[in-house]
Structure prediction request, 130 residues.
Amino acid sequence: QVQLVESGGGLVQAGGSLRLSCAASGRTFSNYAMGWFRQAPGKEREFVAAVSWSGGTTYKTDSVKGRFTISRDNAKNTVYLQMNSLKPEDTAVYYCAAHQRRPWESGTYAYRESSSYDAWGQGTQVTVSS
Prediction:
């Protein structure tokens, strides 16, 4: 099973930027599609963004389109979430997650569903002040 460690969270003012990183170890990173989820206090965990095995395809929830960018570097076994124009409503614990490619999967998977992911990081706190 792949192990995931997030970093890069912190406190930032509204309008600012942060870049989250998620380092993977233990398995062949390119066999995993990667996702970012977040959970605010008192709310359910929600999908933020995902990137395909090769990095060629990305998905984002509507609320972050135009502000967040997900990318991966398979040579470094790392996935990134660049967050710009941050808003107080982006405040949450951010988790990265890994989906191991199944033999029958060709292009996509149920990337919005947390149950699709096989491994999770411990989370990193992002706080955006107004």
